[in-house]
Amino acid sequence: MKDITAKIADREKVIVRTSVVGIVTNLLLVGFKAFVGLMSHSIAVILDAVNNLSDALSSVVTILGAKLGAKQPDKKHPLGYGRIEYLSSMIVAALVLYAGLTSLVESVKKIIHPEAAEYSAVSLIIIAVAILVKLGLGTYVKRQGQRVNSGALAASGSDALFDAILSASVLASAAIYLIWGVSLEAYVGVVISGFILKAGVEMMIETLNDIIGKREDAETTRELKRIICEEEGVLGAYDVTLFNYGPNRNYGSVHIELPDTLTVDEVDRMTRRIQSDVFGRTGVILTGIGVYSFNTKDDEAARMRNAIQKTVLDHDWALQMHGFYADTEKKTLRFDVVMSFDVDRKEALETLYGEVSALYPAYTALIVPDVDVSDG
Predict the structure, then answer these.
(1) What is the pLDDT of residue 348?
(2) Do 153 and 113 have their domain in common?
(3) Using 50, 70 and 90 to split pLDDT, how confident is the model at 2?
């Protein structure tokens, strides 16, 4: 648990330090490129400078997002402010889109009203150095973003690497102009604008997915289930659901299957151990652990389970059956079925109730439909 807590505390420092490096580097590049662009009358170089300025602003927004997102929970926001980072990522995406639109407009103007460029050896050297700097900065920022799970930081790193490619295209167009006298400045500017807009749209979509809520990857749910099932007495873990309240701020719930011989005291101690172990190893806070009772003293219940499970899983849309329990004295049975999104749940339930009733007409059944929220 100490390891997870230390990582959370260190995360904000890493984001701020990395973003400051990005701001300083991008501002220096803005100065150099703006000077070269104005001296050489190159719209492509000037737009490249504007792009670097938007990168610097993005880093400022990333810092603000990290600072605000790290605020401690309070009465109004008991689960913290972590989702503010997603808003900061949206602002970064909006800045990138604005830079792309501005670049596109200016490039089109230059196509309509062309202006000859004038390059010097010094300006070309500055552009070449800027490409190398952007490659180094992009690699550093992206790695740091992936290390601390910061979407805004990782996106800034990817954007910087992409900027290096775009700057290389500017350098190539300058070389073509000097060698063959063909000016491609404005057209290169249009291409740059298109790539900037594409990056902005992708960043916006990714952030919206985080805010709306998306399926957790199968590896995450499998890891949680594996940790839970390591606890002695746990026969299975199901219905893992994670609720994200910002990067590295995950709350969750799960159902575990336990023998029907355990006492409430034993179950209480077991679930507390599971909560502590899961948080210490993954950082996920399990706010709820439901319990399925498993028949261990009734052979007839075991036979019923096998027969009903075979009937249920004969349907392609029935992905899993779990939580089965039959009371042979009171003639009741209950179980959950994980259903595909491709089937009408109401119709599927009617089908299952009919089939179970045909198998065991003397029993009253309760079938709970579960949503396929994970691949695990």
Answers:
(1) 94
(2) yes
(3) very low
Q: Indicate whether 73 and 161 sit together in one domain.
A: yes
Residue 294 burial (CB count, 10 A): 20
Q: How high is the pLDDT of residue 1?
A: 44
Residue whose entry in the numeric block shows the structure tokens 């200016």: 106
**In whole angstroms, how large is the CA radius of gyration of the chain?**
29
- Let me know: does 64 contact 85? Beta carbons within 8 Å: no
Q: What is the DSSP string of 209-274?
A: HHHH--PPPHHHHHHHHHHHHTSTT--EEEEEEEEESSTT-EEEEEEEEEETT--HHHHHHHHHHH
- 208 lies in the same domain as 274: no
| Confidence check: pLDDT of 60 > 70 | yes
* 154/10 Cα distance (integer angstroms): 17
β-partners of residue 336 are 322, 368
CATH number at residue 244: 3.30.70.1350
The model's pLDDT over 298-321, given as tens digits with 9 standing for 90+, comes to 889 989 999 999 999 999 999 999
Contacts of 192 (CB under 8 A, 6+ apart): 44, 47, 48, 51, 103, 107, 166, 169, 170
Confirm whether 101 is domain-assigned: yes
Q: Which residues form the domain of 295?
A: 218-371
Extract the tokens encoding 277: 């172990």
**pTM (whole model) above 0.90:** no
Asked which of 186, 212, 238 is the last residue of a domain, the reply is 212
Query: Quick one: 267 and 238 in the same domain?
Result: yes
Q: Is residue 376 part of a domain?
A: no
DSSP per-residue codes, 143-210: HHHHHTT-HHHHHHHHHHHHHHHHHHHHHHHHHHHHHH----HHHHHHHHHHHHHHHHHHHHHHHHHH
pLDDT in tens, 156-170: 787 777 777 777 777
Is residue 63 domain-shared with residue 197, that is, in the same domain?
Answer: yes
- 268 versus 180: which is more confidently predicted? 268
* Same domain (yes/no): 208, 229: no
42 and 102 part of one domain: yes
